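As a next step, the fold was encoded as tokens, giving this record:
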Amino acid sequence: MNQRVMHHDAASANDASDAHPPSGGTVRLTTAQALVRYLAAQRVTTEDGKSTESLFGGVFAIFGHGNVAGMGEALYQHREELPTLRAHNEQAMAHSAIAYAKANFRRRMMAVTTSIGPGATNLLTAAALAHVNRLPVLLLPGDIFVSRAPDPVLQQVEDFNDGGVSANDAFKPVSRYFDRIVHPAQLLSALPRALRILTDAAMCGPVTLALPQDVQAQAYDFPADFFAPRVVRFHAPAPRVDEIDAAFARLRHAKRPLIVAGGGVLYGRATEALHRFATAHGVPVAETQAGKGALAWNDPLNAGALGVTGSPAANALANDADCVLAIGTRLQDFTTGSNTLFTQADVIAINANAFDGLKHRALIVEADARLALDALADPLQGWHADRTWTARAHKLAAGWRDTVSTLTHAPQRESVLPYEGDVIGAVQRSSARSATDDIVVCAAGTLPAELHKLWRAGKPGAYHVEYGYSCMGYEIAGGLGAKLARPSREVIVMLGDGSYLMMNSEIATSVMLGAKLIVVVLDNRGYACINRLQQACGGAPFNNLLDDCRQGPLGAPKIDFAAHARALGAQAEHVANIAELEAAMQRARAADRSYVISIDTDPARTTDDGGWWWEVAVPEVSSRNAVRDARAKYDAQLAARADPAALNDDATPTDHE
């Protein structure tokens, strides 16, 4: 049966679209002018529900011959209502735009415009990141001439077999919607379609509208009412009665349930509904990377991070649960321990996207997280998890909180370099407001694992870690986007030296825009995370830490990150230990501009507590004994996964790296 519980979208009633504006008349505009004017007209209800603001917070732009004449002229006309922001790297500015949407829980977003050629293809990594993380961004790369009169134009990629192909066709597999605008009138259908994708909980992701240079400048008589201001409606499915009934039938028999909170809880504004549900029914909650912060870190039922980077509390509960309610999560391999963590449990997936909800052989409730939890409230009245299970969850969660406190307050020895847990503790202690207003930003390396376990997220949005694509270089650019979205919050970017060296130019952009960041660089002199993974798979240390790389006569460089950051316009310093880091954090918080702090850290040490097996294929044959030993362990785990009854603590190594 196709009946829905209610007809409702995930937004408030104030988000309903404006009535159709009066029609009549046309306005002659270029394609670029019409596109920019349409974007500037889109409105969204503010978080307090009392007024409206622009749906698009701005447009990041790096101009080149493929967009400066068309898009550049159009953006200049609307520079007040739709600010144009200049960046230093196309991939980085797209990361900033994506982070802006993430920090706004997908309720506001940005567009990005580039020239053709490298400017366009530099966006591809960011497009893939947005696609994997289900985050909205509008990509507007320039394209070759539709007329083909000047072919091959500067930077044009020519296909020997298809004259209609350009470099922008590479966006098709990493876009939720792709269109090449070859005539101005196409905007009348392409823009509403793009907007629907960007504001739909199930389809949300990157939209690419490729803009040929000649078409950008071409004029057309557009209907005037196409540009009337509209308050955007956000779309998310309401739950079906039959799916809610099936979920209820399964849940009511559960004795040991566990909730897995994913990013959909935050994007669906379901945090309060999650708290009510967990408290009423005594169900412990474990958090994915995207879902961390959906429940306050000190809630008695918050068991912490789940999976490969998970806490011992959450993983123990997941391993023993008889029913897992997965809310707004893709159930990727880090969450499920490569499908070994809760194989014994029935899985119910609440997800607006059916593709994601059908993972892990789950019973799906295809719906907005808040609406689904509310729909389950009445049928489940009186139902409660087994009291001993809830009591166990309380005990494990409290024990883990005590362990986190111990790990992040460990005494420091002068002869021993600090590790990530020590740095995390110092950063959180530096806040006079218990760090609840801080936003921590990270993406790749060892830090996401340590932050997932140890960072205390006091409220939704305090934890901003991109771990769907785990993209090195996202961190500083992402921090800029988060700061633009939440200017009153302290945004603390934590990253390793490897990520810093990959992409750091947006420090200069943050200074130029007055968007202050605190950047903490943990210098372990290489790619330490992958170095540990390499050795865990039996490999020799090779090509990861600087000392293990091929070097010329001068050897590996000693990089002065503080001097580099000062050269980009930030204030910066290098500190020698955790005590100096705490003092530097106070100076950084008081600073009037972006502030970079670097500290040397141990490349080998990690938090031993928690973790779960992660599948990384080990070579079947090798001349190294260590590789053959690692392969034997890998084969044993594969056999255990095939026979879930054989899984035990001994078969689940905790070091994912």
